[in-house]
Amino acid sequence: MQPTRALLGMRYRKLRLTTKDVNKGFYKGTGSGAMGRHTKYGGYVIEWDKVRTYVCPDLTNFKLTPFVTNNVRKTYGQYETKLGPKDPQTYLARWKSENGLD
Amino acid sequence: MASAVRPSVGAVTRLAAPLRQQPQLVVSKIQTAPLSTTATLLKRHKYLGARDNKDHNKKRGESALRRTGTRWRLSMSDEPLPKPVPKSELPAVETDPNHGLWEFFASRTTVAATPEEDAKHGRGWAVEELRHKSWDDLHKLWWVCVKERNRIATGNWERNKSKLGFGESEADRRDREVRITMRGIKHVLTERLYAWEDAVALAKNDPEIDLSGNGPAFTPTQYLEDEPVSAFEVAKTKTASPEATEAEAPAAAAAATPDPATITPAAKPQSEARV
């Protein structure tokens, strides 16, 4: 067998991974989930609760941009507990301090 | 064609018949010969079943490339053909100036931002800066980032398509900062979810908190013991003096563990300066 020229040498690693590069059972996919199911007759039924919906809020008068000026240094949080912002005690204490309404 | 030049067999016999009747009395002394014998001599020998050299192609000479048209008249041959209007005389295509797809471009007049324009950006948001933002703000900022990335992708596509030249590294660097912001948003929201899940688990063992859904979820014990008042009086004080209830909230906040996370972002120095 003569391998194809693309597979020769170190260039192989630069190729895109395909299902033929790995053992069976590997599912590569495209990163997109299913939006329905297959029927036993070979058709496809779209399930609308699986179909993605994107809710873009009203952005009028919204002034934030994806960027922060370079004149401001990055800030890092100062936390007393080890868990920091993930600390459930802190979360509960703040909830109580805001009268626990929500 | 061959039959036109050569007399048919029948014609030969008809010609030969009167010759047979008349005896050849007069013999011309002048030797006669056809004007030219070349044509008949050059004629190909016809044998039985020979291929005739008639042109059977009815469309000989027709060409779409040379626009010869058909060899015969068509029913619409006399009809004047419409001529295409030159592009300069066509009316302008009307488009919606406020169409949402315009947001895919950096500006209305150009397809892609110049590298100098692309390079004008700050850094992405730090996670700590995003922690002080509300859900709505983060949701909107996410979509601002999505639109920014769409604009960058449009510029990249146009740059490749039209071979505009440099600008890829500037666009990449800009895109990276946007992705840093988006990663931060995801980080903060995940963090909040985990904190909430753990807090719910913690609240199940908290005597002050009732998660059953019947009655108030939070009943602060220490204040009920200090100052027992009836429900009527509470309602009366609330309607009479809202300052009194407002004064309770800071007291409760002070009583709780003073943690930096509990401090409202307004109290902290605002570092979210914008470009």
Automatic annotation (TrEMBL), chain A:
InterPro entries: Ribosomal_mL41. GO terms for biological process: translation. It comes from the Eukaryota. One of its GO terms (molecular function) is structural constituent of ribosome. Pfam families: MRP-L27. It is found in: Mitochondrion. The keyword Transit peptide applies. Signal peptide: none annotated. Keywords: Mitochondrion, Ribonucleoprotein, Ribosomal protein, Transit peptide. The keyword Mitochondrion applies. GO terms for cellular component: mitochondrial large ribosomal subunit. Belongs to the mitochondrion-specific ribosomal protein mL41 family. This is Mitochondrial ribosomal protein L27-domain-containing protein. It comes from Podospora australis.
TrEMBL record, chain B:
Residues 50-93, 234-275 are annotated as: Disordered. GO terms for molecular function: structural constituent of ribosome. Residues 237-269 have a biased composition (Low complexity). Residues 50-65 have a biased composition (Basic and acidic residues). One of its GO terms (cellular component) is mitochondrial large ribosomal subunit. One of its GO terms (biological process) is mitochondrial translation. It is found in: Mitochondrion. Keywords: Mitochondrion, Ribonucleoprotein, Ribosomal protein. It comes from the Eukaryota. PANTHER family: LARGE RIBOSOMAL SUBUNIT PROTEIN UL29M, RIBOSOMAL PROTEIN L47, MITOCHONDRIAL-RELATED. Belongs to the universal ribosomal protein uL29 family. This is Large ribosomal subunit protein uL29m.
